[in-house]
Specification:
Strand order of the largest sheet: 2-1-3-4-5
Shape: globular
Order of helices and strands: HEHHEHHEHHHEHHEHEEEEH
Strand content: 5-15%
Distance between the termini: 65 Å
Length: 371
């Protein structure tokens, strides 16, 4: 059969597509704890770390709980939006499929999770960073089966990676006195242990294709409402803050070393300690009115470890730095995200993906706790 020139061109184009591989979007893969969780712990039915009840999510979408441990967006949500990247769904989201992964990436973050496997054990169920990396390995196998090894390698190497854990390793491990890490290590050797573990984990991710990766640093975790209420003075716990500063210094040094040593690696450290500390110390300078207590609480009954339908909300959520005893509000997350974008010079990956708007100011909760 004689082919026309038009048919030959079509065949050549199709062959080109077949040999050149699948055309993939740039997506994100997020590894983290409750500061980045977008719903994984909702599906861990025995987990004691969850955000399944009102008033979580009141300023996000339809106002119903969605698995985020805040009233609105996470820092990773906001940075991704402003870079034009799609928001990755939770790994355990029942709608996750190969096509969804190729379009949006995946978020493996899990409330209560840490760099160390032992961290957060009293939450019963949570994904540690090693477990999240193991789940990512399974994701890679799925995508390789879908589009082939060569195209999958390109897809994973072009993706963006976020690793945001560490605070639980202190607050829900080392500082509790419950775990053996509390007496096996001192402050310096515990941070060494964390860095050795994190280095191994980042090398694993590099071996799986992670080339453009950012590690979020720790904020002044001694100033979260829970730490304040547990102190005798009601002030920040300086020992805890010093641990965060030491962690950040060690992690920044580690990232510099790995960026130089690993092939084609662009590994950056997002240090937000100073800006968050400034917000907590001088809230009015940034438009906040309260930086020492949670917006969602039981009034004078403290600590209220989680936000539940019976909780009382503050009058204006945009004026509070903290949403609950542990987690920042949407307004605080936006401020931190904007600071990191400015500091690290993030560029838009896909300008056609417009960022989602911030929640509209809302001072009063809905009269119906279910919506």
């Amino acid at each position: 059969m004689k082919l026309s020139s038009r048919q030959l061109i079509i065949i050549l184009i199709l062959l080109g597509i077949a040999t050149d591989g699948y055309h993939c979007k740039v997506v994100q893969f997020i590894f983290g704890d409750s500061l980045s969780d977008v719903g994984n712990n909702r599906y861990l039915t025995r987990s004691l770390a969850n955000a399944n009840l009102p008033w979580y999510g009141i300023d996000f979408g339809n106002g119903m709980p969605n698995g985020r441990f805040t009233n609105g967006r996470t820092v990773a949500d906001i940075i991704g939006d402003k870079m034009g990247l799609p928001r990755p769904p939770a790994f355990l989201d029942p709608s996750l499929s190969e096509d969804v992964i190729l379009e949006n990436g995946v978020n493996y973050a899990s409330g209560g999770g840490g760099i160390l496997n032992e961290t957060g054990g009293y939450f019963i169920q949570r994904f540690s960073l090693y477990k999240q990396i193991d789940l990512f390995r399974g994701t890679q196998d799925l995508i390789k089966s879908k589009i082939g090894n060569e195209a999958a390698e390109k897809f994973f190497q072009e993706a963006r990676y976020v690793v945001a854990l560490g605070s639980n390793d202190f607050i829900n491990n080392y500082l509790t006195g419950v775990y053996s890490d509390s007496w096996k290590y001192n402050d310096a050797t515990f941070i060494d242990y964390l860095m050795e573990t994190l280095e191994d984990q980042l090398k694993m991710l590099h071996g799986m294709g992670a080339r453009q990766l950012m590690v979020f640093g720790l904020g002044p975790m001694g100033c979260i409402p829970l730490q304040r209420v547990l102190s005798t003075s009601g002030g920040c716990q300086e020992k805890t803050n010093k641990l965060a500063v030491s962690f950040n210094a060690a992690a920044s040094k580690l990232l510099d070393k790995m960026s130089s040593a690993l092939a084609n690696a662009s590994y950056t450290f997002g240090d937000n300690y100073d800006v968050v500390n400034d917000v907590i110390t001088n809230p009015s300078k940034f438009g906040f009115e309260n930086s020492d207590s949670p917006c969602c609480s039981f009034g004078r009954i403290r600590p209220a470890l989680t936000c539940v339908p019976a909780s009382t909300l503050c009058n204006d959520r945009s004026k509070y730095v903290f949403w609950d005893e542990y987690h920042p509000s949407d307004a605080a997350n936006e401020l931190v995200a904007n600071e990191l974008i400015k500091k690290l010079g993030f560029l838009q990956v896909d300008p056609t993906n417009s960022p989602s708007p911030a929640p509209a100011p809302a001072s009063e909760p809905s009269p119906d706790p279910e919506g």
